[in-house]
Design goal:
single chain; alpha/beta; 8 helices; 23% strand
């Protein structure tokens, strides 16, 4: 499978550029859902596995984890290689959630626009939240992070990825520091840039990804 397999979905959204138009994003991923996993495998996408490796040493067995922008459930597959956790997922794409449900790895799945805050989640309901490969589609990333600090208990972990181009454009070092100064979290890991989609010629070696872990205060 190659990039041409997403041509129909690409008519409404440029994958590299992304979009924060929720209707466009939902339609794009609904159309792509059936071939999504195979396409990402061809593109050598390893972010879910790397994120799982980073976060699981900070979690106890049976931890409750919110998979934010869970899509078809790639993060859940990566996590279950490391232990048994209580996984809940939330995503804007109903078609993707149908496929995630079939995996049998989630206890609960909710269709919701991540830009519509607060999320339909109780205060301090989770031991961790993971936001992997999602932030390109969120206009106000800082607002989402603030809400996730509400959803995750004190001492819990928020793990996220951000593309290197967006990291620089959106001044992520400043954003992380600002939330630290305001008492929302403490950064415990900001990784070196790693390959993001090396098998996708639009990304290649130019755009990498940064993995970050923050501990909620």
């Amino acid at each position: 499978m190659n990039h041409d397999d997403t041509e129909d979905a690409g008519n409404v959204l440029d994958f590299k550029a992304g979009s924060t138009d929720s209707e466009v994003v939902a339609r794009y991923y609904d159309e792509w859902a059936r071939t999504y996993d195979a396409t990402l495998a061809d593109w050598e996408y390893e972010a879910p596995d790397r994120a799982a490796e980073l976060i699981t040493p900070h979690l106890s067995a049976g931890a409750a984890i919110l998979d934010v922008g869970c899509g078809t459930g790639l993060v859940s597959e990566a996590l279950r290689k490391h232990g048994d956790f209580h996984l809940h997922g939330i995503d804007i794409s109903a078609a993707s959630l149908e496929l995630a449900q079939k995996r049998g790895t989630y206890e609960n799945l909710v269709c919701h626009d991540l830009q519509n805050l607060p999320l339909p989640v109780g205060d301090k309901a989770y031991d961790a939240a993971m936001v992997i490969g999602v932030l390109t589609y969120v206009e106000d990333v800082e607002a989402l992070f603030r809400d996730l600090c509400r959803c995750v208990r004190s001492g819990g972990i928020i793990a996220f990825t951000q593309r290197t181009d967006r990291w620089d454009e959106l001044h992520f070092d400043d954003l992380i520091g600002r939330l630290s100064d305001e008492g929302f979290w403490t950064a415990i890991h900001i990784g070196k840039p790693r390959g993001y989609l090396p098998g996708n010629e639009d990304f290649g070696d130019d755009i990498k990804v940064v993995h970050t872990l923050c501990r909620v205060i």
